[in-house]
Amino acid sequence: MSARSGSPLGFAEALDLPLSVDVRTAARAFGICPATAYKLIRLDAFPCPVLRVGGRYRIPTACLLGALGIEERPVYAAPLDNEPAPAASLHDVHVRASEIQS
Fold first, then answer.
1. What does the DSSP 8-state code read for residue 92?
2. Sign of the torsion angle spanned by Cα atoms 33, 35, 39, 41
3. Distance of alpha carbon 67 from alpha carbon 78, whole angstroms
4. Residues near 100 by beta carbon (within 8 Å), at least 6 away in sequence
5. For residue 11, which of 64, 70, 51, 71 has the smallest C-alpha distance?
6. What distance in Å separates the CA atoms of residue 48 and residue 37, rounded to the nearest whole number?
7. pLDDT tens profile 16-61
8. Rg of the chain in Å (alpha carbons)
9. CA angle 91-69-22, nearest 5°?
10. Which parts of the chain fold into alpha helices (H)?
11. How confident is the model over 86-95, as pLDDT tens digits?
């Protein structure tokens, strides 16, 4: 058995993954070694769907995140990492009648 490839993925790193990932990245996300991941794939016991693309396996990121219990991306009110804040639209503003001052 080979050792784990790198440290497990962090939350922020998991949210920055592309649409699909390779087996090594999926193994890191689950905190298992790649050899174990390939064995689970062969046994049809991997915790999320696995696609065979040519001679390689790909794991859809949405399924991977779902298997990890991350169902939706967080939305932050303030911009992170010096990114400009998104422009607010009228549909984004919800005001209660009690909040309106006369």
1. G
2. positive
3. 28
4. none
5. 70
6. 11
7. 888 899 999 999 999 999 999 999 999 999 999 999 999 999 999 9
8. 20
9. 105
10. 11-15, 23-30, 34-42, 61-67
11. 555 545 545 4
**Which residues pair with residue 69 across a beta bridge?**
none
Angle at 64 between CA 63 and CA 69, to 5 degrees: 95
Contact 41/50 with Cβ under 8 angstroms?
Answer: yes
Give the residues across from 57 on adjacent strands. Answer: 52
Number of helices followed by number of strands (H, E) in the chain: 4, 3
Going by the DSSP 8-state scheme, the letter that residue 14 receives in this structure is H
Tokens standing for residue 7: 């440290």
Cα–Cα distance between 23 and 57 in angstroms, integer?
A: 7
* Residue with token string 């967080």: 74
Q: How many residues belong to the chain? A: 102
Written as six digits, the tokens of 51 are 């696609």
What Cα–Cα distance (Å) separates residue 28 from each residue in 23, 43, 94? 9, 19, 41
